[in-house]
Amino acid sequence: SDKKLSKHFSTERNAAVGAVQSEGIGNGQGPAGGEFYHADGFRWNGREVHLETGAGGLAVLPGTAGGGSRLLYSAHEPTTEFNTGGVRIFDNQTGKSLGGAALYRGLQAGYFAKANGVGDIELLRTVPQTAVGHKVWLDANENKIQDPDEVPMAGVQLEIYEKGNLVGSTTTNNQGEYWFDEQNITGGLKTQTNYEIRLVDSDRRLAFRTGNAGENRDDLNFALPCTSFPTFTVQTVSVGNEVKLILSGYQPTDRYWLREANEPVKNIGAADAYSIPETGIVLNEVLQGREAKSYTLQMYDSKGCSATRTVEVDLNKNTADNSQLGLNVYPNPLTKNATVFINEAKVKEGSVQVVTIEGRIMSNQSMTSNQSTINVEKLPAGLYIFKMQANGRIYSKGVVKQ
After folding, report:
1. Sequence-ordered list of residues with C-beta below 8 angstroms from that of 379, at least 6 positions apart, any chain
2. How many whole angstroms separate alpha carbon 182 and alpha carbon 323?
3. DSSP 69-134
4. Do 297 and 245 contact (CB within 8 A), yes or no?
5. 3-state SS of 6-73?
6. Would you write out the chain's pLDDT as a tens digit for each of its 402 residues?
């Protein structure tokens, strides 16, 4: 109850706490007209901008043989620098300000402006260990920034060297993060010392110098380029004055972006690209007259790595990619039976569908070898997509039925 609390605690009155009184008497900023911890405002260009700067985080440092008790609290503008956040320190015997430390600037990215970027304050009995490191990721667009769609690289081995001698090693976690500290370096990192971090089985290296005890480095990143890229084939099919582009040989998680070759290049990534339709058709356009057009097709895999290809569409001819990674259906045009053949690795288990350009499945049968025969005699005349899933990839082929 309040009565029980009053036996042990009392509110300061006009800058006095019990028998101890500070110079904040009568400043009009506390109970009964004054405040014990005074001089806690912020002045700028000779003007009192803020009377109070505390943001709520508190810690008390008990007195020692070398000095009296201290109060620390989180504050905005803890020093004379405008638009900052950090910690202010006060003497618990006199209520005077002993200065402060600005830990960040108010508009610095990643912080909640100047008012409350520091949470609670905890005191440590010893200086914390020094740690250095940060992240390894696949930098698909090679801009040295980990974009939202760029994946971290787990299981990457790293080593740290001092004067050419190996002193520690570690491996990135599932988030691509790594750290070197006393857990993987005997005796921990030395202060004011030159080190070099190396990626195992790579020529990638980062040289740096440690600071004082407890000063960490979280900017030692490795942005690695793509080493593998999407593989696919493109088929151009024209029926009358309609032209279609059909993808084949891609993985289900691949995405695509298509634009006319003369359009301005856009800075896009895998997150901006489109899912590939069930039919594999990524272009269905009516061409005026008999003109030809060129398109730029960009494919992205699940890691964001991309491959680009220029495709020419022409009503005067049907074209097929000459790559070995593809599905063949013959004869073309079809009349009675379609022979389906995939010139890829041996098919262990798969399925082949005959699909209309609207996505309606007309036939579906299993396929346990690289060749199969499908009866299409009863299918109406028109363009059909033969779609096969095998060995983790999707293969498509556009064929005309007479």
Report:
1. 354, 362, 401
2. 53
3. -EEEEEEES-SSSSSEEEEEEEETTT--EEEEEEEEETT-TTS-TTTSS-------SSPPPP-EEE
4. yes
5. HCCCCCCECCEECCEECCCCCCCCCHHHCCCCCCCCEEECCEEEECCCEEEEEEEECCECCECCEEEE
6. 455 555 667 788 898 888 888 998 999 998 999 999 988 889 888 888 899 988 888 999 887 655 688 999 999 899 988 888 899 999 988 999 999 998 888 777 777 777 777 888 988 877 778 899 999 999 998 999 998 889 999 999 999 999 999 999 999 999 999 999 999 999 999 999 999 999 999 999 999 999 888 889 999 999 999 999 998 888 888 777 778 888 988 999 999 999 887 777 666 777 789 999 988 989 888 776 656 788 889 999 988 999 988 888 766 665 544 444 567 888 888 999 999 888 766 777 788 899 998 889 999 988 888 888 999 999 999 999 998 888 788 888 888 898
Q: pTM for this one?
A: 0.62
Cis preceding linkage at 128, omega within 30: no
Say how far apart CA 389 and CA 349 lie, in whole Å: 9
Q: Which residue has the tokens 């300061």?
A: 12
How far, CA to CA in Å, does 126 sit from each of 13, 73, 98?
A: 36, 20, 22
Among 394, 64, 370, smallest CA distance to 251 is for: 394
Q: Say which residue the tokens 């279609």 belong to.
A: 244
Which two three-digit tokens encode residue 122?
């905890």
53's CB contacts (< 8 A; 6+ apart) are 40, 41, 42, 75, 76, 77, 78, 88
In whole angstroms, give the CA distance from residue 181 to residue 130. Answer: 6
Q: If you search the block for the tokens 């110079």, which residue do you land on? A: 23
CA 206 to chain centroid: 21
Q: How far from chain centre, in Å, is Cα 50?
A: 39
Place of tokens 């390894």: 136
Give CA torsion, residues 286, 290, 293, 299, to 10 deg.
50
Round to whole Å and give the CA distance between 109 and 46: 29
Burial class (CB in 10 A: 0-12, 13-18, 19+), 74: buried
